[in-house]
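S1.2 Input.
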Amino acid sequence: MSGPGVFPTFLYYFAFTYLVVAIVLKKGVTEPLPTDITYAISLISSISAGALGAYVNRTIQVSIPLEPTTQTKLSTLLEAMGYRPISNANSESDSKRTEASDCIIYERPGLSKLFSSKVFIQTTGTVATIAGRASMIKRLTSQLI
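S1.3 Output.
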């Protein structure tokens, strides 16, 4: 289980922030700023947005020991945060998985899923691996431990 790392997340926020700020400063103000000032402001804004986006929205994974109550605790915490299980990725047609491995995907219902990430929980033997957006996983593990 892995998602985009720090660099692709930084690049995504950097590029889009740069474009939006440059366009707004060039076309959206009544008196356009000189080009070099516009690009300098765009660069500073996009570096800040890229760093913040990469810090908050990168994908991380955490492994925790699987105890008899761990799955129940995880489900209860995720449901309290508004998440619902949407699929069980362990299927008989998937030849790469064994019966001892199980992956459950959680997401928020309705429009709120557009503004939050999915949470993936994979249990294998005696370990549960939780993957998702860094801010969400940190909040979940702090309440779990």
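S1.4 Remarks. Confidence is low (pLDDT under 50) at residues 90-100.
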